[in-house]
Amino acid sequence: MSDVGSQPIDLRLKLLDKFDAIYFDLDGVLYRGLSAVDGAAEAVRNILEAGCGVAFVTNNASRTPDEVASHLMELGIPAKASEVITSSQVAVEILQQYVQPGERVFVVGGDGVEQALTAVGYVASRDSHGCVAVVQGFGPAVSWRDLAQASYLIQGGATWIATNLDSTFPTASGIAPGNGSLVDAVRNAVGRDPDGVGGKPDRSMIDRTMAAVPGDRPLLVGDRYDTDIAAGIAVGIPTMLVLSGVTQILDVWSASLRADYLCESVQGLIHTYVDSTISGEDYVCGGARATFVALDMCVRSTGGTWLERLRAADSLKWDMVTEFGLDAFTQGRITLDLGVL
């Protein structure tokens, strides 16, 4: 399905040249599980060589910034722990609004949650006895017993902070349940929502990132509309959606949010970006043209590459929202035809 990989790099017109700081989500953007997304290491190296700042912004709370940076380095992606912002760090900042450091906090999740708590003076505990708060994040070893103990504490009045609400996350084997699914399990048991949530789309996570790696022209790159793109919109910075993770082509069509740039992967940053332009009642992008076929209630996009067809169709969709309403697309009343992919 790849169109981008065969295109020559134009050093004058690379998308990255528009920006001076790029903030990357990780799962589904730079890697899937233990393996790098194709071309991710090359893309990040090109970005750094161009003098652009880089940060890594992850809702995955299972690992510490040092562990994340080490994993990236193993994949050939230059990274420092100081450039890694995790949802655990932000969740602990929120916890401080409710509970003073020094108190005992029950940890649900990986080492990233535990380190973030101890770094500011909390007593992080895997034993629920005496805990006045719960911080719930993802970890591959999280068990039913962990969720049950968290539920008992919350029912007894403990403060409950979730690191993030991603319902799924991409792995090398496929899409797996994320922390949001586990938070839902606890929510069902306790009958209420968390007192706070640390990860994207909450703007506090991007605010922390912009303080760590500042830029006058930042870009947020992610694979999810509900977290990554929503977070960029919340702080008013441009966003780029990649299709190497959770979001697939038909998800773009049904999305209720719009990314500024659509790319197959982060390789799109080091290639020419062909944008859409209006042409009469249609939109064109490179060799593609998107047309609304009223009889079929369908946007049909033809010519060019599949990615050009998608960009043209997405632009036409958002132009049509004023007349037809967003529900026409999110509920499938107006469909998408991209031809053969």
Gyration radius (Cα, Å) is 21 Å
End-to-end separation: 6 Å
Widest sheet: strand ordering: 5-4-1-13-14-15
Mean pLDDT: 94
CATH topology of the largest domain: Rossmann fold
- Overall structural domain count: 3
If you had to describe this structure to a student in words, what would you say it looks like?
By secondary structure, the chain is an alpha/beta fold. It has three domains: 4-59 and 201-270, Rossmann fold, CATH 3.40.50.1000; 88-197, HAD superfamily/HAD-like (Rossmann fold, 3-Layer(aba) Sandwich); 277-337, no CATH class. It is 33% helix and 23% strand. The chain has eleven helices and 20 strands. The strands form five sheets. It has a six-stranded parallel sheet, sandwiched between helices. Strands 7-6-8-9-12 form a five-stranded parallel sheet, sandwiched between helices. Strand 2 (31-32) and strand 3 form a beta hairpin. Helix 5 (144-155) packs across helix 6 (179-190). 49% of the residues are buried. Residues 1-12 have low confidence and may be disordered.
Characteristic terms for this protein:
single chain; alpha/beta; Rossmann fold; five-stranded parallel beta sheet; 11 helices; 20 strands; 33% helix; 23% strand; globular; disordered N terminus
